[in-house]
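Bumping my old thread because nobody answered last time. Still need a sequence for this structure:
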């Protein structure tokens, strides 16, 4: 028999054809997920792979050709390994925490974002209206002393006006209490700033009241204070009209009714034309066409003197607004308790 360079009939052509065939299969193999990656490994890199079979056939090649063919097979094996590593890294980088590859054809998922609580939104709106006409926001503590909550505001120690607000006192420290109004912040502003003074004082207040659909033991107020020379009641009325129309619409009307507060004289309650019935009369306005929203008045001279402001030189006005009442009117809400129950079905309406 004539000798040739290959044993058992393995020709050079067949060997080269197998190498080219496997190289083409490696280049054309599609790897889109972990299952296909495993198939690639089994076909080209496992002990029973086509490459392993090719390596076992090198011994059948003529000795003088084995080195060259072995080098080609090793290069092909390295190509397969490099291809496997590239696909593996790509799949791992695109896998989500759930272990699934990201589907870039899916619609964008817009995350659900939070929103301001309706009371906070109305508080911000009220503050912005007053800031636009020159008022400055000031803040103060919610745990106060008797002086800033009552005495400096013309509440005498045995004055019956103290009974107007059922207060939370600290049992071991009778002079310490939870503020019943943000007027205490006005006192602190008058003690530390000189006129002209134009401030607003938003914040939470506390009163020992029965919790019903119309009252709560804590709520929010925003009080405004303006002190300067020659401040008049007419100036206060124009400020209130501006506020009401900015808050509820240009067609809103206001009226002032005489009232009493220890820290203002004269004092008034302000009503606005009912937004639900347009002033014609309904259950909300008790068929009067008007809804009360705030109290106001000229700062009592005794309050100015208590804060070391010359009442003969300066005058001023103060305005107190209940934010929950304002929010209920704005959004037509009939139960104040909804604001503090954290019911998502209620709060999601204000996104």
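Sorry it took so long. Here it is:
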């Amino acid at each position: 028999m004539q000798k040739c360079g290959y044993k058992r009939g393995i020709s050079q052509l067949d060997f080269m054809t197998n190498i080219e065939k496997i190289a083409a299969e490696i280049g054309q193999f599609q790897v889109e997920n972990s299952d296909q990656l495993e198939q690639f490994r089994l076909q080209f890199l496992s002990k029973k792979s086509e490459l392993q079979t090719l390596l076992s056939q090198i011994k059948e090649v003529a000795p003088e050709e084995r080195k060259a063919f072995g080098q080609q097979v090793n290069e092909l094996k390295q190509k397969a390994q490099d291809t496997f590593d590239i696909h593996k890294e790509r799949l791992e980088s695109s896998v989500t925490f759930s272990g699934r590859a990201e589907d870039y054809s899916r619609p964008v998922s817009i995350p659900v974002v939070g929103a301001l609580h309706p009371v906070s939104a109305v508080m911000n709106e009220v503050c912005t209206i007053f800031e636009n006409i020159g008022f400055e926001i000031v803040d103060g503590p919610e745990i106060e002393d008797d002086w800033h909550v009552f005495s400096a505001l013309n509440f005498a120690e045995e004055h019956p006006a103290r009974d107007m607000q059922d207060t939370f006192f600290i049992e071991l420290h009778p002079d310490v209490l939870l503020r019943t109004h943000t007027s205490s912040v006005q006192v602190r502003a008058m003690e530390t700033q000189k006129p002209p003074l134009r401030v607003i004082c938003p914040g939470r207040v506390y009163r020992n009241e029965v919790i019903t659909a119309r009252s709560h033991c804590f709520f929010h107020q925003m009080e405004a204070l303006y002190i300067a020379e020659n401040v008049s009641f007419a100036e206060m009325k124009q400020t209130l009209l501006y506020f009401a129309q900015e808050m509820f619409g240009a067609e809103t009307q206001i009226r002032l009714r005489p009232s009493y507060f220890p820290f203002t004289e004269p004092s008034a309650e302000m009503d606005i034309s009912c937004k639900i019935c347009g002033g014609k009369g309904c259950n909300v306005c008790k068929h009067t066409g008007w809804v009360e929203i705030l109290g106001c008045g000229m700062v009592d001279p005794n309050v100015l003197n208590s804060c070391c402001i010359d009442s003969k030189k300066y005058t001023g006005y103060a305005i107190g607004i209940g934010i929950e009442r304002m929010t209920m009117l704005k959004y037509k809400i009939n139960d104040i308790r909804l604001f503090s129950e954290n019911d998502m079905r209620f709060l999601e309406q204000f996104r």
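The domain at 118-350 is CATH 3.30.930.10 (BirA Bifunctional Protein; domain 2). Let me know if any region looks off to you.
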